[in-house]
Design brief:
It is built from ten helices and ten strands. It is of the alpha/beta class. Strands 6-7-8-3-9-10 form a six-stranded mixed sheet, sandwiched between helices. A four-stranded antiparallel sheet has the order 2-1-4-5, covered by helices on one side. Mean pLDDT is 88; it is low at 251-261. Keywords: ATP-binding, Nucleotide-binding, Transport.
Protein backbone atom coordinates (compact mmCIF):
# COMPACT_ATOMS: atom_id res chain seq x y z
CA UNK A 1 0.00 0.00 0.00
CA UNK A 2 2.71 2.49 1.03
CA UNK A 3 6.17 2.34 -0.46
CA UNK A 4 8.98 4.67 0.58
CA UNK A 5 11.99 4.79 -1.78
CA UNK A 6 15.36 6.14 -0.65
CA UNK A 7 13.78 9.01 1.30
CA UNK A 8 15.90 11.89 2.57
CA UNK A 9 14.77 14.80 4.73
CA UNK A 10 17.52 17.24 5.64
CA UNK A 11 17.28 20.33 7.82
CA UNK A 12 20.46 22.22 7.05
CA UNK A 13 23.21 19.85 8.12
CA UNK A 14 20.85 17.57 10.04
CA UNK A 15 19.88 14.43 8.14
CA UNK A 16 16.68 13.55 9.99
CA UNK A 17 15.77 10.90 7.42
CA UNK A 18 18.76 9.59 5.53
CA UNK A 19 17.95 7.10 2.78
CA UNK A 20 15.01 5.27 4.37
CA UNK A 21 13.21 2.67 2.25
CA UNK A 22 10.30 0.57 3.48
CA UNK A 23 6.92 -0.87 2.56
CA UNK A 24 3.66 -1.02 4.50
CA UNK A 25 1.41 -3.82 3.30
CA UNK A 26 -2.32 -3.36 2.91
CA UNK A 27 -4.20 -4.81 5.87
CA UNK A 28 -1.18 -4.84 8.17
CA UNK A 29 -0.49 -3.19 11.50
CA UNK A 30 3.13 -2.17 11.07
CA UNK A 31 5.15 -1.05 14.07
CA UNK A 32 7.87 1.58 13.76
CA UNK A 33 10.37 1.67 16.61
CA UNK A 34 13.77 3.21 17.22
CA UNK A 35 15.65 5.40 19.68
CA UNK A 36 14.81 9.08 20.08
CA UNK A 37 16.15 11.02 17.11
CA UNK A 38 15.95 8.03 14.77
CA UNK A 39 13.78 9.97 12.31
CA UNK A 40 10.47 8.19 12.93
CA UNK A 41 8.23 11.23 13.37
CA UNK A 42 9.98 13.09 10.54
CA UNK A 43 9.29 10.09 8.30
CA UNK A 44 5.61 10.25 9.30
CA UNK A 45 5.55 13.97 8.59
CA UNK A 46 6.98 13.44 5.11
CA UNK A 47 4.58 10.61 4.26
CA UNK A 48 1.60 12.62 5.58
CA UNK A 49 2.53 15.70 3.55
CA UNK A 50 3.70 18.02 6.33
CA UNK A 51 7.21 18.14 4.81
CA UNK A 52 8.38 17.90 1.22
CA UNK A 53 11.40 15.57 1.23
CA UNK A 54 14.85 16.62 0.15
CA UNK A 55 14.85 13.62 -2.19
CA UNK A 56 13.20 10.22 -2.63
CA UNK A 57 9.55 9.42 -3.09
CA UNK A 58 6.43 8.07 -1.39
CA UNK A 59 3.87 5.95 -3.23
CA UNK A 60 0.30 5.09 -2.20
CA UNK A 61 -1.16 2.15 -4.11
CA UNK A 62 1.44 2.78 -6.83
CA UNK A 63 0.66 6.49 -7.20
CA UNK A 64 3.39 9.02 -6.40
CA UNK A 65 2.12 11.17 -3.51
CA UNK A 66 5.46 12.77 -2.63
CA UNK A 67 4.96 16.30 -1.31
CA UNK A 68 1.17 16.34 -1.65
CA UNK A 69 -0.37 18.50 1.11
CA UNK A 70 -2.20 16.86 4.04
CA UNK A 71 -5.69 17.88 2.89
CA UNK A 72 -5.16 16.18 -0.47
CA UNK A 73 -3.86 13.03 1.23
CA UNK A 74 -6.85 13.17 3.59
CA UNK A 75 -9.07 12.91 0.52
CA UNK A 76 -7.09 9.85 -0.58
CA UNK A 77 -7.69 8.13 2.76
CA UNK A 78 -4.26 8.73 4.34
CA UNK A 79 -4.59 10.09 7.88
CA UNK A 80 -2.28 10.57 10.84
CA UNK A 81 -2.60 11.26 14.54
CA UNK A 82 -0.11 13.08 16.73
CA UNK A 83 1.72 12.24 19.94
CA UNK A 84 -0.07 15.18 21.57
CA UNK A 85 -3.79 14.99 20.80
CA UNK A 86 -5.22 17.90 18.79
CA UNK A 87 -8.83 18.06 19.95
CA UNK A 88 -11.23 21.03 19.84
CA UNK A 89 -11.26 21.48 23.60
CA UNK A 90 -14.43 23.63 23.80
CA UNK A 91 -16.51 21.22 21.72
CA UNK A 92 -18.02 17.97 22.97
CA UNK A 93 -16.71 14.56 21.95
CA UNK A 94 -19.63 14.15 19.55
CA UNK A 95 -19.07 17.61 18.06
CA UNK A 96 -15.36 16.86 17.59
CA UNK A 97 -16.27 13.80 15.56
CA UNK A 98 -18.84 15.70 13.52
CA UNK A 99 -16.21 18.26 12.52
CA UNK A 100 -14.21 15.69 10.54
CA UNK A 101 -16.10 14.95 7.29
CA UNK A 102 -15.32 17.54 4.62
CA UNK A 103 -17.55 19.23 2.07
CA UNK A 104 -20.50 19.49 4.45
CA UNK A 105 -23.11 21.84 2.93
CA UNK A 106 -23.38 23.84 6.16
CA UNK A 107 -19.80 25.06 5.65
CA UNK A 108 -21.02 27.39 2.89
CA UNK A 109 -22.99 30.49 3.91
CA UNK A 110 -25.10 30.31 0.74
CA UNK A 111 -26.18 26.74 1.59
CA UNK A 112 -26.95 27.67 5.19
CA UNK A 113 -29.31 30.37 3.90
CA UNK A 114 -30.92 28.71 0.92
CA UNK A 115 -30.47 24.94 1.41
CA UNK A 116 -31.37 24.57 5.05
CA UNK A 117 -33.05 21.21 4.42
CA UNK A 118 -29.91 19.76 2.83
CA UNK A 119 -27.77 21.11 5.65
CA UNK A 120 -30.05 19.57 8.30
CA UNK A 121 -30.17 16.20 6.51
CA UNK A 122 -26.38 16.02 6.19
CA UNK A 123 -25.97 17.03 9.83
CA UNK A 124 -28.26 14.18 10.89
CA UNK A 125 -26.21 11.73 8.82
CA UNK A 126 -22.95 12.92 10.35
CA UNK A 127 -24.41 12.81 13.87
CA UNK A 128 -25.56 9.23 13.29
CA UNK A 129 -22.07 8.30 12.10
CA UNK A 130 -20.55 9.99 15.16
CA UNK A 131 -22.81 8.00 17.48
CA UNK A 132 -21.77 4.77 15.71
CA UNK A 133 -18.13 5.65 16.31
CA UNK A 134 -18.83 6.49 19.94
CA UNK A 135 -20.52 3.13 20.44
CA UNK A 136 -17.69 1.28 18.67
CA UNK A 137 -15.09 2.87 20.95
CA UNK A 138 -17.29 2.39 24.04
CA UNK A 139 -17.07 6.04 25.09
CA UNK A 140 -20.80 6.81 25.30
CA UNK A 141 -20.30 8.00 28.88
CA UNK A 142 -18.25 10.99 27.64
CA UNK A 143 -20.12 11.68 24.36
CA UNK A 144 -21.42 15.03 25.63
CA UNK A 145 -18.33 15.93 27.66
CA UNK A 146 -16.13 18.80 26.49
CA UNK A 147 -13.08 17.27 24.82
CA UNK A 148 -10.78 19.50 26.86
CA UNK A 149 -11.94 17.72 30.03
CA UNK A 150 -10.96 14.25 28.83
CA UNK A 151 -8.01 12.31 30.17
CA UNK A 152 -4.97 11.81 27.97
CA UNK A 153 -6.06 8.29 27.07
CA UNK A 154 -9.61 9.37 26.26
CA UNK A 155 -8.21 12.07 23.96
CA UNK A 156 -6.19 9.39 22.13
CA UNK A 157 -9.39 7.36 21.71
CA UNK A 158 -11.10 10.47 20.35
CA UNK A 159 -8.27 10.94 17.83
CA UNK A 160 -8.71 7.34 16.75
CA UNK A 161 -12.46 7.95 16.47
CA UNK A 162 -11.90 10.93 14.19
CA UNK A 163 -10.14 8.66 11.70
CA UNK A 164 -13.32 6.54 11.64
CA UNK A 165 -15.47 9.45 10.47
CA UNK A 166 -14.07 9.17 6.94
CA UNK A 167 -13.14 6.27 4.68
CA UNK A 168 -9.56 5.90 5.86
CA UNK A 169 -7.28 3.56 3.92
CA UNK A 170 -4.23 3.90 6.13
CA UNK A 171 -3.74 5.60 9.49
CA UNK A 172 -0.38 6.65 10.93
CA UNK A 173 -0.44 6.64 14.73
CA UNK A 174 2.30 8.62 16.49
CA UNK A 175 2.84 7.20 19.99
CA UNK A 176 -0.82 6.47 20.62
CA UNK A 177 0.16 4.92 23.97
CA UNK A 178 2.22 7.85 25.30
CA UNK A 179 1.02 8.91 28.75
CA UNK A 180 -1.93 6.47 28.70
CA UNK A 181 -2.70 4.22 31.65
CA UNK A 182 -2.62 0.47 31.06
CA UNK A 183 -6.41 0.00 31.16
CA UNK A 184 -7.07 2.63 28.50
CA UNK A 185 -4.08 1.43 26.51
CA UNK A 186 -5.67 -2.01 26.32
CA UNK A 187 -8.93 -0.38 25.18
CA UNK A 188 -7.07 1.54 22.45
CA UNK A 189 -5.29 -1.64 21.40
CA UNK A 190 -8.58 -3.54 21.20
CA UNK A 191 -10.07 -0.77 19.03
CA UNK A 192 -7.07 -0.82 16.65
CA UNK A 193 -7.29 -4.60 16.29
CA UNK A 194 -11.05 -4.46 15.63
CA UNK A 195 -10.65 -1.71 13.04
CA UNK A 196 -7.96 -3.77 11.35
CA UNK A 197 -9.81 -7.09 11.40
CA UNK A 198 -13.42 -5.97 11.00
CA UNK A 199 -13.05 -2.87 8.82
CA UNK A 200 -9.83 -3.52 6.95
CA UNK A 201 -7.90 -0.52 8.28
CA UNK A 202 -4.16 -0.49 7.63
CA UNK A 203 -2.07 1.02 10.41
CA UNK A 204 1.51 2.12 10.89
CA UNK A 205 2.36 3.12 14.43
CA UNK A 206 5.31 4.66 16.23
CA UNK A 207 5.51 3.26 19.74
CA UNK A 208 8.08 2.72 22.49
CA UNK A 209 6.04 0.23 24.53
CA UNK A 210 7.35 -3.08 23.20
CA UNK A 211 4.62 -5.10 24.91
CA UNK A 212 2.02 -3.01 23.06
CA UNK A 213 3.97 -3.35 19.80
CA UNK A 214 4.32 -7.12 20.26
CA UNK A 215 0.59 -7.50 20.85
CA UNK A 216 -0.51 -5.54 17.77
CA UNK A 217 2.20 -5.33 15.15
CA UNK A 218 3.56 -7.57 12.43
CA UNK A 219 5.90 -6.59 10.92
CA UNK A 220 8.00 -4.31 13.11
CA UNK A 221 10.50 -1.91 11.52
CA UNK A 222 13.36 -0.38 13.51
CA UNK A 223 14.89 2.92 12.44
CA UNK A 224 18.20 4.39 13.59
CA UNK A 225 20.04 7.48 12.39
CA UNK A 226 17.44 8.23 9.75
CA UNK A 227 17.38 4.88 7.99
CA UNK A 228 15.85 1.42 8.36
CA UNK A 229 17.99 -0.78 10.59
CA UNK A 230 15.98 -4.00 10.84
CA UNK A 231 12.60 -5.50 10.01
CA UNK A 232 10.77 -8.67 11.04
CA UNK A 233 8.43 -9.97 13.70
CA UNK A 234 8.47 -8.21 17.06
CA UNK A 235 10.48 -11.07 18.56
CA UNK A 236 13.00 -11.08 15.72
CA UNK A 237 13.52 -7.33 15.93
CA UNK A 238 13.82 -7.32 19.74
CA UNK A 239 16.57 -9.95 19.53
CA UNK A 240 18.45 -8.34 16.64
CA UNK A 241 21.94 -7.31 17.78
CA UNK A 242 21.80 -4.11 15.72
CA UNK A 243 18.55 -3.08 17.41
CA UNK A 244 19.92 -3.85 20.87
CA UNK A 245 22.96 -1.76 20.09
CA UNK A 246 20.89 1.14 18.77
CA UNK A 247 18.77 1.22 21.93
CA UNK A 248 21.34 0.26 24.58
CA UNK A 249 24.60 1.38 23.04
CA UNK A 250 26.14 -2.07 22.83
CA UNK A 251 25.03 -5.47 21.62
CA UNK A 252 24.86 -8.45 23.94
CA UNK A 253 27.68 -10.18 22.07
CA UNK A 254 29.93 -7.21 22.71
CA UNK A 255 29.26 -6.92 26.42
CA UNK A 256 32.18 -8.01 28.62
CA UNK A 257 31.64 -11.20 30.54
CA UNK A 258 30.97 -10.84 34.24
CA UNK A 259 33.94 -11.41 36.46
CA UNK A 260 33.70 -14.61 38.49
CA UNK A 261 32.36 -14.12 41.98
Amino acid sequence: MIRVDDLHMHFGGIRAVDGASLEIAEGSITGLIGPNGAGKTTLFNVIAGHYTPTSGRVLLDGDDITGLPPHVLFGKGLLRTFQIAHEFSTLTVRENLMMVPDHQPGEALWSAWFRAGDVAEREREVATKADEVIDFLEISHVADELAGNLSGGQKKLLELGRTMMVDAKIVFLDEVGAGVNRTLLNTIGDAILRLNRERGYTFCMIEHDMDFISRLCDPVICMAEGTVLAQGTAEEVKNDERVIEAYLGTGLKNKPAKAPV
